[in-house]
Amino acid sequence: MIRLTAGELAAKLGLNCCGPSERVVCGAASLGEAAEEQLAFVGSAKYFEAGRASKAGTVVAPPGYEPAEGQAVIESPQPRAHFAAALGVLYPLTTTAAGVHPAAFVDPTAVVDPTAEIGPGVRIGPNSRIGARTRVLHGTSIGAGVVVGDDCLIYPRASVYDRVLIGSRCVLHSGCVIGADGFGFEFSAGRFHKVPQVGTVEIGDDVEIGANTCVDRAALGVTVIGTGTKLDNMVHIAHNSRIGKHVVIAAQTGLAGGVTIGDYAIVGGQVGVGDKARIESRAVVGSGAGILTSKIVRAGEPVWGTPARPLRQYLAQLATLARLSKRKGGT
Amino acid sequence: MIRLTAGELAAKLGLNCCGPSERVVCGAASLGEAAEEQLAFVGSAKYFEAGRASKAGTVVAPPGYEPAEGQAVIESPQPRAHFAAALGVLYPLTTTAAGVHPAAFVDPTAVVDPTAEIGPGVRIGPNSRIGARTRVLHGTSIGAGVVVGDDCLIYPRASVYDRVLIGSRCVLHSGCVIGADGFGFEFSAGRFHKVPQVGTVEIGDDVEIGANTCVDRAALGVTVIGTGTKLDNMVHIAHNSRIGKHVVIAAQTGLAGGVTIGDYAIVGGQVGVGDKARIESRAVVGSGAGILTSKIVRAGEPVWGTPARPLRQYLAQLATLARLSKRKGGT
Amino acid sequence: MIRLTAGELAAKLGLNCCGPSERVVCGAASLGEAAEEQLAFVGSAKYFEAGRASKAGTVVAPPGYEPAEGQAVIESPQPRAHFAAALGVLYPLTTTAAGVHPAAFVDPTAVVDPTAEIGPGVRIGPNSRIGARTRVLHGTSIGAGVVVGDDCLIYPRASVYDRVLIGSRCVLHSGCVIGADGFGFEFSAGRFHKVPQVGTVEIGDDVEIGANTCVDRAALGVTVIGTGTKLDNMVHIAHNSRIGKHVVIAAQTGLAGGVTIGDYAIVGGQVGVGDKARIESRAVVGSGAGILTSKIVRAGEPVWGTPARPLRQYLAQLATLARLSKRKGGT
Lengths: 331, 331, 331
Known about the structure:
The structure is a homotrimer of 331-residue chains.
Chain A: E1 4-5, H1 6-13, E2 16-18, E3 24-25, E4 39-41, H2 48-53, E5 58-61, E6 72-75, H3 79-90, E7 99-100, E8 105-106, E9 111-112, E10 117-118, E11 123-124, E12 129-130, E13 135-136, E14 141-142, E15 147-148, E16 153-154, E17 159-160, E18 165-166, E19 171-172, E20 177-180, E21 185-188, E22 191-194, E23 200-203, E24 208-209, E25 214-216, E26 222-225, E27 230-231, E28 236-237, E29 242-243, E30 248-249, E31 254-255, E32 260-261, E33 266-267, E34 272-273, E35 278-279, E36 284-285, E37 290-291, E38 296-297, E39 303-304, E40 309-310, H4 311-327
Parallel strand pairs in A: 4-5, 5-6, 7-10, 8-11, 9-12, 10-13, 11-14, 12-15, 13-16, 14-17, 15-18, 16-19, 17-20, 18-23, 19-24, 20-25, 23-26, 24-27, 25-28, 26-29, 27-30, 28-31, 29-32, 30-33, 31-34, 32-35, 33-36, 34-37, 35-38
Antiparallel strand pairs in A: 1-3, 2-6, 21-22, 39-40
């Protein structure tokens, strides 16, 4: 962990420090849990009192905040965002240990940038390419013909199947599986026959993929995850889905095949989306919603429930049911 | 990728080729995305126009299809199935690289067929047996006393616990876990005590297990996955469940303990099935349904919703709720 | 497998054996499936007949049970619990093979107890500590600054990120990921910026974590899993959640950020819990329930449905809907 003064930290953030700028900052915590050498943040005027009651020696706070005695203040119009930036300073990522670990299995036809780090037990298949400063950590499996861009961080024990393309500055967490076969079978003569899944997956830049999340390859063509999109843990993206840019999908949500999601859409956790449904740009889907096959969800009012409907309608129906049930002596 | 002529491909499929049979085929795509050297398929008369508008140089199409100028036609009464077969020709699976990688950890008491492939970092535990031409790829963990049949494909980073039996021609995707302990505890004296899970898992032939899917071992006896059954990604099969033959279960569905599913049943995604429920042969369960403990689901009408009920009943209830809510001015 | 006589087994359990105590016991099964040399149990008077009809040569049974001819009886006031204890005798866990496998990657600054077992392909990061008799099996990834207590069993291919603390006697199944980043982003200037997740995870003693389950690290501070708590497969615990002691959470349940669960609560499978909701001590949440953000669930009546409500209310509403729908000719 880094140790610096409040003044030095403020300077790194391009902000002013008021009060005892020589205070040491070493780590960060919430207002309620911070200790003297830790940084906390006061999000808005609503938290001024909590800020003064906090034991944090240094706080990021908006203009107008009056600190507790002895508290250093790093003044910011956006305390939350600057606090996040401060975390990057206080807890720097481990830097890349350039080079291929002697116990990695790199195919002779693979091209690994000399500034990349390939950890022990990692496999890189034939004709794959790993970009500059990208870290591929312990035990990860990279297939054949895969391209990974620059400055990516692939945590231990991820799986990337053959021919998947991954942009730059992506983060893949442990246990994610990118490019496994789509779930496609033809039924004939009393049994299911596998339809070869010959497409692939393309992942843009700045994408984060959560732990144990699965993105299946397309049957034909590509499954797409757009630039800037963030997937939480255990999300399932089936074959041929196309997710736009800067989309957020919370944990345990599942998309069936051929789903389209527009840019800046927000999808809650445990949502189920049927085949070929379309969630339009900037639409919002509440947690646990179920979206039927081929349904279109538009921007505007968030949708909830199964089958997904506008929030007001969903709430009205819940209220109706409760009222009728009560009137009949149900409860 | 394979390169051949339309005529050669038709011959391999046992079909006729009409038109310019010397056209080169190299890869496949959908009608809308295919390029000149790619194969596409025309599923039925409904797609005749799209077929003629496609840039695909060669199509698999039903009798009666009139091709675009210069388009080769591989005529088939079942274009979809023959297209799937063509994919197998155009994108052959990597052949097995027989032998044990020097960086695999194979117990001296394990028996690996000389035609099998054991990848780097794989572990094969004591007394386990790996069949002919089976591929066990990078980093997979096979416990003790496991039997894997012939011609299986186990992708990187799968886990198979002790004593699990797996048939022939099975496909196990990355991250799946077969044979972990069932979730069994006895509560006494203020805490939970583990009930040793001493049963195992038996998987038939031709089974496919999706990425990150979990099949728990039985408390006593066996958890069974029948021949020909296909499980999608992140499916949870709890201890002592018995799944029949040629069953399909879509992603993120979970079965509690002791569930029975009959042959040819179809279960959608994100379904929850309570303890000891029984889904009968050929029954159909809609995505997102919740099946209560000990409930029996019969073949015939598909069931939907929670608690799961016949589709018509489910739809009628949704309609009633919408109508009542509207009448009361809800929306 | 262990082979002993009914008398010897009874002695190990501190119980009496009636009848032919020289019968061999070698393995266990259910009453319906047991063979002559297997142990089964008769849970209560309800099963007396099944006990007598069973082929089991030895049974654990309550006082008053009259055995079949030639059947040995180990008499117990708590047959189920003593049967579980007998399983531990009949199927002992593999003992620890103390030592570090030559193909493990243990950082020179890590401290591994000489009685611990570190399997092939395992990585232990800088400054981490592994306690006495703990087994870390094939391919598992342990980050930097991690502490694992004594007598833990970590199955192959688990992931533990940096700085996570794990107590003693814990079991971690294959594919679980402990300490991946919480899902935290700040939106500004048209894109999401990662909020560094600088907290960690603390896991108490006697915790069991299911296969492919994910417990995310806190943004700041800690995500806590209390002593004695059991998580089933594919459970998602988001950043900063705090789970009490002796809690049970069934498969595929997901907790959003900052959720609190009190001691001895029971949460079914596929439950979704919104941000900052609180499930109080000894509360019971039915499978598939959806608990809204900031909602408080109290002990007493179990809750069901989405949004979660007391079971009686939920049932009354289902009944109302069914009745109204029928009256209108819906079905």
